[in-house]
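The following record pairs a protein chain with its ligand, adenosine-5'-monophosphate-propyl ester.
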Amino acid sequence: MTTNDGGIDALLQEDRTFPPSKDFVSNANISDPDIYDKAKADPESFWAGFAKELDWFQGWDQVLDWKAPDAKWFINGKLNASYNCVDRHAKSEKRNKAALIWEGEPGDWKVYTYWDLLREVSKCANALKSLGVQKGDRVTIYLPMVPELVISMLACARIGAPHSVIFGGFSAESIRDRVEDSQSKLIITADGGYRRGSIVELKQNVNDAINADSPIENALVVRRTGHADDLMVSGRDVWWHDLVDSQSSVCEPESMDSEDMLFMLYTSGTTGKPKGIVHTTGGYMVGTYATTKWIFDLKDDDVYWCTADCGWITGHSYITYGPLSNGATQVLYEGSPDYPDKDRFWDIVAKYGVSILYTAPTAIRTFMRWGEEYPNRHDMSTLRLLGTVGEPINPEAWVWYWKNIGGERCPVVDTWWQTETGSVMISPLPGITTLKPGSATQAFPGIDADIVDDKGNSVPPGGGGYLVVKQPWPSMLRGIYGDKDRFVEQYWSKYPGEYFTSDGAKLDEEGYFWLLGRVDDVINVSAHRISTMEVESALVDNPKVAEAACIGKSHEVKGQAIVAFVTIKDQISTSDDLVTELKQHVATKIGPMARPDDIYFAAELPKTRSGKIMRRLLRDVAEGRTLGDTTTLADPAVVESLKSQYEDDE
Ligand code: PRX
């Protein structure tokens, strides 16, 4: 990468580590220096210690019941997630503290105190009830990053209706599949949202997704853009401002069992069908509360900003549930980082005095490319801690972030975790851990992560293999909605009794974890998980396509980019227009983030004699490497001809 690096190379060449500063007084810096050993010796007591910091309507009888792969945490405990995120602060001295400071892309803004949030969440919960939503019913939420998104999630939690949030970048068809799988009776949406100065057509997508067979009975619609009043369907759709605003602001929170489902969130796996990852209430709240407190080190006067969207797990755990259960003040931002100019994030940091910033490596690499002049326009001296998530961070980007955003004074926490793990699993503890750029460092106390070889043996320091988790943890997924077999097969069959992450990793001589990326057919594009199978299914859905194979290719900014190899039907001829058409087809079927960067036409795809497409070879072709072993190919000439075509095109 070419940048005006401001001395980054020099910093990297020193192979430098970053010891904790004595001035950083960590929340986890309890007088006991052996928190890791203590948590390892008795993880149940360790987690129960955090659980006691939450409010329970009824205490638990037993911390853990573990019959692999089924875990139950805080047995018979009763609590409510929205009560823990809102009521307990609204009823304390924090009642007038800002909970959400929201800024829309056009520059409009709103602030909600904890007291405001309690009123709004309760009104929304009453509105859901008035639409017939009951405890146990699933509710789909498809909203831009507006306060109503967090309010809706908490309102669902308040009445015990599991939510299924769908990222606003997904298409009508993706909504339809997820609504169908979750059998949601209500969808909460908006007319539109703002992104890079344009309107995202959310309501149009919802209308296209809901047909006569849909389980959806009603749509509750936030008026955000005011451009789509004619898309309201009478008898089915109701405006948020008509229904929610007139409700009572008192709604008793349901007493939920610790193991009652809090939400499901769809994510991509190795098949074409997204899986609804199920999280329950008690363990998830304990995991997100604990990790937010220690990793983001929230103090009462912090202003915390996680730039994720609530459509992804990061927004669930580190916008809605973790920070609010800790009583944080946080910033929410609706739009893109380059609107109206490339300094929007830094403008927000300076305007609200953000002290903790959590973002993705892909964003950091983009900022790096744009250059230091944008952060340099603003006074960002309020920042004291930085975090990253979603994909491996290259040491150059880490050091750039530390230097140019953190002003060489803020620790950077590289946090490894997944939709399935619910909360961060591997991360430094700021103020305690010595940092190494590019390494997520160590497992969180109480998390038994390990790297194993194919046979399941732990690799020694210096070795590489598969990342596994050997003991249960509170916020672990409890299943895939409606598909127990897939849950067992996907996560628990490779190493029985141990959770298989599908990530490769290596261990350095000091026992630090270095994450290497996915080992399955999942592509990580700008920290978004996309399955090769989903993109392939979208491509073959086009009548001109006979067969398709997709792979992830390394990309400077996005981490990985999607490359598709396509064979077309006999009577069709290839053209640039067809490339554009196919890219658009994928964007329409799944969403713009799944649009392939490159499409190559192939007369044939490389296959084994049993007919399996050899993606490994396609990766070699796309990344210009010497071809790996081709002896198992049915027709080795196929890949050679692909390679020469690819080289001609480059
Ligand atoms: O490959 C890992 C990568 O993101 C995957 C999980 O994606 P998702 O469920 O969408 O959750 C993303 C946000 C938690 C993982 O299997 N990943 C996530 N964080 C990191 C990472 N890879 C390397 N370093 C990280 N810090």
